[in-house]
Amino acid sequence: MTTESPRWFTSSYSDNGGQCVEVATNLVAVRGVVPVRDSKRVDGPELDFTAAAFSAFVEGLKAV
Description:
This protein has 64 residues and is an alpha+beta fold. It contains 2 helices and 3 strands, in the order E-H-E-E-H. It has a 3-stranded antiparallel sheet with strand order 1-2-3.
């Protein structure tokens, strides 16, 4: 099921006192983007990354 509303989540590895980001991967199929926002400012701005750019970012993190 896809929707135009982001379904935000944080990584299950995020346990650092709320200093993390949230992503909404459910919009890839509909809008072709992965929105990212600060978990401390849920009403603040969000950045939209293409699915390819976000995948490259995640792969880069895994390589570290």
